[in-house]
Specification:
- By secondary structure, this protein is an all-alpha fold.
- The chain has one domain.
- About 70% of the residues lie in helices and about 0% in strands.
- It contains 21 helices and 4 strands.
- A two-stranded antiparallel ribbon has the order 1-2.
- Helix 2 packs antiparallel against helix 6 and helix 2 crosses helix 13.
- Pfam families: Gate.
- It comes from Haladaptatus litoreus.
- InterPro entries: Gate_dom (IPR011642).
Length: about 475
Amino acid sequence: MSSEENSLYTINAEHSQRSIDDIDLEDFAIQPVVKFVVAFLIGGVFFLLPVPYQGEITVPFDIAVSFLTETFPTAVGVYSLAIIVAGGVLTTFAMLGDGTFAGYNLSYFETSNVFWGLRLAGLVLAPIMFFKLGPEILHTPGTGGLMWGSLVYSVGVIIPLGAVFITIFVALGGLEFVGTLARPIMKPLFKVPGRAALDSLASWVGSYSVGLYVTRNVFENGGYHKRDVFTIATCFSTVSIGFVGIVAATLELLHLFPLIFSAYFLCVIITAIILVRLPPIATTPDEYIAEPDPELPFTGSISDYLRLAINEATTKARDGDSFAHAAKRGFIDGVKLTALILGTILAVGLAATLLSANTPVFDILGKPLVPIIAALGIPNAEAVAPATIVGITEMYVPVLLVTETATKAKFFVAVLAVSQLIFFSSVGPMILDMFSDVPIQLRDLVTLFVMRTMILVPLIAGMTHLFAAFGML
């Protein structure tokens, strides 16, 4: 479908708003209703139910990931090694052969030469990291130790496990229900379909990895066009609530967690509202890669939206997969996606963290920001300034730079680090590799990181002083 056809389709859809009276609502049937409710509860409990765990409040999804990675680290390491090697090998067969291997179609693994090289780099690095080979500099806690023992293990488990439960939720009506109710907010504020709320929710409560999986899934089924994907991937692939807690604990600010999270939530909303209206996001074409499946144009009251949401969800549940089939499909898709991106994450992330830990690059880049940070009234400007830049490598590194600073400086960096969103130890290469059919370039991600930082620095400085004035810091 051409760009012109897509644009015409969008224009026609937007000018055919319907009310609840114009829609043929399905007759009530107990089976699809029960199917939707059970799927909704399964997803809701797994991703959203607050439960106490090891002295903290978290969700079952986080507990499951932590249990697997902490209880079976060797098994997770072997699995991570195997899946990175498999990704590199299958990509090589896809790029050099006829696109098949042992009768299987390998078109899923075809990519650009750059990402083929990164997956091969991951294939080489994975055994080095697993067996702790090579120089010690590769295995320090802030570089290889962080990448292999934390990020690679976590992402490797998060995607397949999260995909099982999120696919059940999506395939049996959850996407339609959440998306319909969120339309009055998502479309006017962020220029994306209401269903994008689910991607964001998956990131908030689970992981940006799960959120990006949802985005890819909906994109391939015609639910998003390329500009939608660009917006969601760069503005709503947020770090999870649990990670915000880790940041707060590292800086000994856990007592300020509600304040930090509230500021983070507000920062994500404000930056998204601004950035979706500016290049490079605003100039991305509204082209689909599959038969378009846009949301039904609708206007009505809150009760009308609720009736439509239930109708859309139960219809989807009626026509959707069984629970077992949805879970199986989610797991297979999750494993394939993990094989696709985990080697890239290791290669790019290790390079980024080594650059940060062993060169003065970010100290030099941060120098011009020292007087700006000082002028904004944030203490310890010499430590805070490089922390505003180094977040492009890994979101946790800025936090480690300010552990010995004043409370206001810690609060400022805590909120900034989790709000910048784009970092190249994980989410950057994931976006570039997963969405190679969207015009997202490396320079675009760097540009958006800089734009986000320019918005966030004065915004968070203002919040810091406001909270301090009220005696909250």
